[in-house]
Design brief:
Number of helices: 10
Strand order of the largest sheet: 1-2-3
Order of helices and strands: EEEHHHHHHHHHH
Distance between the termini: 73 Å
Radius of gyration: 25 Å
Strand content: 5-15%
Number of strands: 3
Largest sheet: 3 strands, antiparallel
Helix content: 55-70%
Length: 200
């Protein structure tokens, strides 16, 4: 195995290519400690130390740091680790580590997200956003079932119409269409929207 390229990612971090393929990202100090230089061979022992000890340990620390900044879904955290240059096995080890302490929990994330968004968006839109963040449909459904008992989407629609409505009095057809489009984009069901619009 030969180091064919060292490409600066930041002033302190370098993408290491081995035999022409991107292998991992190391800090300046790690390059020096492991004697990684362009054109120089890398021993199996050094490669194993980097991939099985240095990178998984650093990935765990990075995962913890990211979670200190805010709750994340499993896939969101995985994407961040991979974009930071950690190889898939190191990212997976870090994910298993934080999961073992319940630092990531997609159902908890979904529940928190629904509670923070339900006064602004409809169920369909929230579901779509959670799926995009990598939350499973099962976790989404369970989270919704725990929050829906005390939530009537029509009350949220009423509140949004009151905020968005122009002036007092009844709504004309042009404004009705504008509000309908706005509420549909927020993910509320057509039947709920029409039911509330009739009240106005």
């Amino acid at each position: 195995m030969t180091v064919t390229e060292l490409r600066a990612v930041t002033k302190q971090k370098f993408q290491v290519e081995i035999d022409g393929q991107p292998a991992f990202v190391l800090y300046k100090g790690e390059l020096s400690r492991c004697h990684i230089e362009k054109g120089r061979g890398i021993s199996p022992e050094t490669y194993r130390e980097i991939t099985e000890e240095i990178l998984p340990k650093r990935a765990k620390m990075r995962a913890m740091h990211l979670l200190e900044q805010g709750d994340r879904t499993r896939r969101g955290l995985e994407d961040k680790l991979l974009k930071s240059g950690y190889p898939p096995h190191a990212a997976e080890e870090a994910l298993a580590y934080v999961e073992s302490f319940h630092y990531i929990d997609d159902k908890r994330y979904a529940l928190s997200y629904i509670l923070s968004q339900k006064d602004k968006k409809g169920k369909t839109r929230i579901q779509m956003e959670l799926r995009r963040k990598g939350v499973s449909q099962e976790d989404i459904d369970q989270a919704f079932s725990e929050t829906e008992e005390d939530t009537d989407p029509r009350e949220t629609i009423r509140e949004l119409i009151r905020k968005k409505k122009r002036g007092e009095g009844p709504i004309d057809e042009k404004e009705r269409n504008r509000l309908y489009g706005f509420l549909m984009r927020r993910g509320f069901s057509s039947s709920d929207i029409l039911s509330v619009l009739r009240e106005f």
